[in-house]
Amino acid sequence: MATISNPQQTPSIAAVVADRVGANPAAAYDMNAACAGYAYAVAQADALIRAGAARHALVIGAEKLSDVVDPADRSISFLLGDGAGAVVVGPSDTPAIAPTVWGSDGSKAGAVGMNHTLVEFRDGAAPWPTLRQEGQTVFRWAVWDMAKVAQQALDAAGIQASTSPRSSPTRRTCASSTSSPSS
């Protein structure tokens, strides 16, 4: 289960879903990686199946970001919404999941994230935490650094940009797996 909006830290919502769909005692865990979470989860499912550690995997991406987005914050509220999507990944003679280009950039942690912690909220030191971003910093990152990552992904897949369908990485990782009135 790829989500950052599960209001409970434990049990994992993946374990609850596995029980509800009759898949006990399946391996089940939550992945908290924001927009990249669904793509990471699909890549992990693919790797587990290729390694023989799993035969099939149910990957779910679900968010209820309306609980953690300030609707008055014009830097982020128009970008995010509530939605969910799922896929069953299994073995195939013609694999359709491209090689994964893994990465993160912790140096940009201050550019996108929560404005306060739950501990600060609990202790009365801060209001309810909401997502926020530094628009210019995120825009610059998206324009300059994502082009490099996109080229790495094309190289790993063995295709050229001139023959590749046009797609936005953010739209692909955040929105393609969701259905939302705000998408």
TrEMBL record:
Residues 159-183 are annotated as: Disordered. It comes from the Bacteria. It holds the Pfam family ACP_syn_III. Residues 29-106 form the Beta-ketoacyl-[acyl-carrier-protein] synthase III N-terminal domain. Residues 162-183 have a biased composition (Low complexity). PANTHER family: 3-OXOACYL-[ACYL-CARRIER-PROTEIN] SYNTHASE 3, BETA-KETOACYL-[ACYL-CARRIER-PROTEIN] SYNTHASE III. This is Beta-ketoacyl-[acyl-carrier-protein] synthase III N-terminal domain-containing protein. It comes from Agromyces marinus.
